[in-house]
Amino acid sequence: MTCPMERLPGIFVAARDAESALQTLRETKLLLNGYRLQRKCHVVGIPLVRYPSAQDETILRRKLADFRIQETSFEPIVDRPRTLEDAVRGIVPPDLVPKLPRSLDVVGDIAVIELSPELELFSGEVGKGILRVNPHVRLVLRKAGEVVGTFRTRGLKVIAGSGGTETVHREFGCIYHLDVSSVYFNPRLSHERRRVAKQVREGEVVVDMFSGVGPYSILIARLQPYSKVYALDINPSAVRYLKENILANKVVDRVIPILGDARESSKNALYGTADRVIMNLPSRAQQYLDVASHIVKLAGGHIHYYQFISRDANLDAVIEYFRGSVLAQNRKVEALSYCKVVREVSPSRVQVAIEAFVA
Question: Rounded to 5 degrees, what are φ and ψ at 132?
């Protein structure tokens, strides 16, 4: 966040002389603190508390090879609040401060927050506070609904900042172009994506059944250049960005984008081809376990399965459901290597990950 510029006397020196100039200005008590230096090409402008006297100029000429004095505009440095609570103190009523969001999702330069109904009247102030605390954020959006529909999108409302909802997100050396209003992307799963991607071995064929803009597929292809990844998604917007991201990350030879429902798109063409299947659609992955069981090679392969469950649900029951669904397709879970909660979705709901070798 920038502040209004102020007209002040300044000294302009070659960039190579800037350190020497700063030291001399400190000694002569001419240096004005609290303002940003100007940097243009190879010249640095330094704010002064006053115009130099004749005696000051004599000292400056002795210490500096060349300089000029002129009035110009300098930007004040304003201390940035360290927390959202600090940023909205005196603006949001004290009884609502405990309800301020304790976390936010940052996708590229966009922050997405969940706001309690009590704070909706102060949503603009909260958004501006987030911008003050997070200088790399340019736009703040409030969640205005759940992730719904076939395309996995949610309603979002602008509460502060500027610009559109398209951004560029960087994660573990990969670049993802996306529009947060038209595709699903969860930055909180970055370490989970990396954990899975690091398991892929040379020569493996991976089917990413619900790829979105490609965070699993592209990271796998970058970490394991001798793999092949089929990336499927039913959302045309997601696949458009997926194709852009494949180009941006230089994995055209490794990631094959496919637009369409995973059930229809994988029939015949992908059945029996995969060493590894990723099922990152926790709201409906259960409905596709039959498809995943057929995509896995006859010799066997790994399934990475995600599901939303109640916080107090029995994990053993989830595992048994998974085993039973695979068995119903005349396949068998030979080894279960992983079953853990990977993130909290709400106070009452979590996302669980199951990994198994299916023969």
Answer: -70, -35
Task: Give the integer Cα–Cα distance in Å for 200 and 278.
Answer: 11
- In sequence order, what are the beta bridge partners of 307? 352
Model pLDDT for residues 266-279, shown as the tens digit of each residue: 888 999 999 999 99
Residues across the chain: 359
What the block records as the tokens of 319 is 């595992």
Residue range 6-74 forms a domain whose CATH class is: alpha beta
CATH, domain 84-164, list 3.40.50.720, 3.40.630.30, 3.30.1360.40, 3.30.300.110: 3.30.300.110
Residue spans in the chain of domains classed CATH 3.40.50.150: 183-358
Distance, in Å, from the CA atom of 228 to the CA atom of 234, rounded to the nearest integer, reads: 20
Instruction: For residue 79, give the 3-state DSSP assignment.
Output: coil
Cα separation, 145 vs 156, whole angstroms: 7
Burial of 154 (0-12, 13-18, 19+ CB in 10 A): middle
Q: Please check whether the domain covering 183-358 is classified as CATH 3.40.190.10.
A: no
Nearest to residue 292, comparing CAs of 284, 213, 341, 195?
A: 284
| pLDDT per position as a tens digit, 241-288 | 999 999 999 999 999 999 999 999 888 899 999 999 999 999 999 999
Return the DSSP state at 312. T
Residue 241 CB: number of other CB atoms within 10 A?
A: 25
